[in-house]
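Duplicate of earlier report; EAL domain-containing protein input re-posted below.
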Amino acid sequence: MEGSLKETPYEKRIQRLMTGEDGDQYGFYINITDNIVREVKNPEKACWEDETGRPGGVTHWLQQQIYPYILDNEEEKKFRRTFLKEELLRIFQTGQRHIQLGYRFRKGKYITCYTVNIEMFEHPVDHTVECCAIWRNDTIPYINRVMTHMLLRDKYRMIAVLDIQENTVFVRKHTFENTEIPCDSPLEYEGFIRELSEKCIQEKSTEWFQTSASLNTMEENLQVAGTYSFTVYNADRGAERYTYQWLDKEYREVLIAVEDRTVEMEKDPLTDYLNRDGFVRKTENILKKNADRYQFAIIYFNIRKFSGLNDVYGYENGDRIIRSYMDRIQNSTLRPLVLGRVAADRFQALVDAKNLEPAALGKLLQYQVKIGEEQVEIYGRCGIYYIPKQCKLDVSQMCDLAKMAKNKISNQYVQPYAIYQEDMRTEYEQKNLALLNLEKALEQEEFVVCYQPVVEGKTGQIASAEALVRWNSSGEEPMIPSVFVPELEDSGYITKLDTYIDQTVRRFQEERYHKGKRMIPVAVNLSRMDLMNSRLMERICTELQETKVPKQYFRYEIIESAYTIISKEGEEFLKRLRKEGVQIFLDDFGTGISTFETVRDYTFDALKMDMGFVKKIGKDPKRDAIVISIIDMAHRMGMKVVAEGIENKQQSEFLCNHGCDYLQGYYYYKPMSAEEFSKLLDK
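Output:
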């Protein structure tokens, strides 16, 4: 209303009240002193005329028309107290002439918010105290205030009010595209959710979205926590968070807000670069717009032995290394169009191929970081996938191929990168096949244990053998261990395979022993995972005690990298084996970072020299000297030496001339089946 009722001439007050000039409002004009309703204005045209002109009419009218519909008990009590005749007169006598009340009012299925303005004054003739009470519908302004507060707090894509009782939603505002959801009109909630899931939500997430947004799921969570939210990706791969919170719990009114969380959801909190989802979405957008104009490549990076850096220098310094590594990539000549962190020390970059010079990657991937007073050398490596024209792969698949290339790096100190080749995919699929079909392959005995003899250096006679494994899947060519064993080790499934090999060798040895045939020691490899598996270690010890076969016919080989992280339980296990008379060999000696510490801290029966040394025999005097030194060192420490990977006479003679105890390789024997091995021993 414009102006104050107090400033309006007395004779015009009733006229103004009754004309309806102020729009959607109603009210009454009362004599407070005599508790009489003089006039009523009602836009809904209710018949209140009977309430006018009689004593006590004010109280009766309020009890019939107002009090039953006030939602909040406290609001009703306050309203009742204020409209008592004695209270209004007391307020008037204190000199106060204006009172304002607010409450929520429900009639039918709609909830409305009203503000009541009460203006009191004295009648100029009979001096009774009178007032004019105006009810103004403030529902829309109230909702606007609430929503404005929320909109100022965050970036919202939709604000709506849900009436659970009526299964009705009123959308106040939205910015969704590709949909015709009307605003400020009652919509059936389930239909509204279906419309959103079909038009606005990523296809693979629609079922989950419908379940999360269902009335049952939503109300159950609201009853527990008072608020409920979930995040979903929309059709444009942007992240949106749907939040439900009580607007009025008693009457089951809920405020729904949908906010754009793409930036927050796609940012890596440690580095402030993109995370995996952000990298994929941004790369997709660039490729979609520029696929035919430029040649792109995806590079997959990681830091070598990063977990070791964390252990030695602490996680805070590990985080610094990660940030410095990404900054180094971002500021390099690669000029990445997109750079993201996948997890831990793994990163992905989309680059313009013209900025990629593989030969220059060595300088980029190896650098120093100062930690305290120490300069720490950081070694990175990467795989490269050049995206072909009209590529039908999605970005995640492209990243997998770049990662696949990275995993094929053979000597990262010489060349710390690898470029994806199509034949890598076949090997990758075989590795995945190993993970998926391991149980089935074990049950159907697709894994075949082979035996490669080891000869004595002085005599050339067979002295022992090593148990190896081949995978003969569906009658195809046997798959060599280098294809599937690394994947089994990374996944932890290698223990099941090692158990199978160990039990197969045990049965082979027991069968020959009970038949009185010639016996030689057979070595079984144990992985780092085996030395963490208490059940496997206990089983091996138990079966060794139960077998009748002399313990010297059983051996176990442990690669050096496994021993560097061995647990106390694993150390006790190896001591028990040696106490039983089982020999323990250190395999792949010379490849680890703690080679001399390993042989210093634990006594092995023999060292197996890495075949990388053997292959270089006769090609480099320095390497030859290293081989001689290893043999001499082992002998001084009371250990035998086994050289594996011998392929020619020159290598054999060199090793024999310098006192190598045992020799293994294709020059002597290839791995053979149990049947062939038995025939060889029986000669």
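Residues 1-8, 13-23 have pLDDT under 50 and may be disordered.

Merging into the original ticket.
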